[in-house]
Write a structure and sequence with these properties.
59% of the residues lie in helices and 9% in strands. The chain is mainly alpha-helical and 207 residues long. The strands form 2 sheets. It has a 3-stranded antiparallel sheet. Strands 4-5 form a two-stranded antiparallel ribbon.
Length: 207
């Protein structure tokens, strides 16, 4: 799986929940989305889309970017509510697992925007595993714990309102409908991402 598809699949997996979206209430001109009390501006979306596209060497469009930013904000709020500790060292380790190859990882590090985005995705992954009772990305049952964490996020997010500006589409099941390909939010893509993560962890354990 390419780095771009892995980033998208992980983002979809960590926040597979049904949220309020596609309405103007809760957003204003210049806002792409509001997640609880966190506003994501159109400028943030465009800036992140450009930076990640440059790091990947391929298009990471605005709708995919917004979906990931919403997922990251949602999981961060759940993490704060549950007081889940995630250290910088854990984020750094998870970030390398998300990107996998060192050259791609270094490209993300060259720009503060792409670096911050990757760290947010990594933090969300660690948080989800810990919400499921795991210790982190090196937990021998990380895949199983992540699934339990997804359920925990779904339950905790019931009281977190998410609104998406109509120009971007509608937020359903952890993705923006109608603007990204089905493979990015399909169950098969998520399953593939989880399997690859599990395989990587097994290889580390054998090393």
């Amino acid at each position: 799986m390419s780095t771009s598809r892995r980033l998208r699949a992980i983002g979809a997996a960590v926040a597979t929940v049904l949220l309020v979206g596609g309405c103007a209430a809760g957003t204003h001109p210049g806002a792409a989305a509001v997640v609880g009390g966190t506003e994501i501006s159109v400028g943030d979306v465009d800036k992140t889309s450009r930076a990640v596209s440059t790091a990947l060497g391929q298009d990471f469009n605005a709708n995919v970017t917004l979906g990931e930013l919403v997922n990251n904000a949602l999981v961060e709020q759940v993490r704060e509510e549950r007081s889940i500790p995630v250290s910088d060292a854990e984020i750094a380790e998870a970030a390398k697992l998300v990107v996998r190859d060192e050259a791609s990882y270094q490209k993300f590090q060259q720009d503060t925007v792409s670096r911050d985005f990757l760290n947010q995705v990594a933090a969300a992954a660690v948080t989800t595993i810990k919400l499921g009772g795991g210790t982190g990305v090196n937990d021998p049952l990380a895949q199983q714990k992540q699934q339990a964490g997804i359920a925990a996020v779904k339950d905790a997010s019931k009281d977190i309102k998410v609104t998406i500006a109509p120009r971007f589409g509608q937020w359903t099941d952890g993705a923006i409908d109608g603007n990204i390909s089905g493979s990015l939010s399909s169950e098969s893509a998520q399953a593939k991402a989880r399997r690859e993560a599990a395989e990587a962890q097994q290889q580390q354990g054998q090393g």
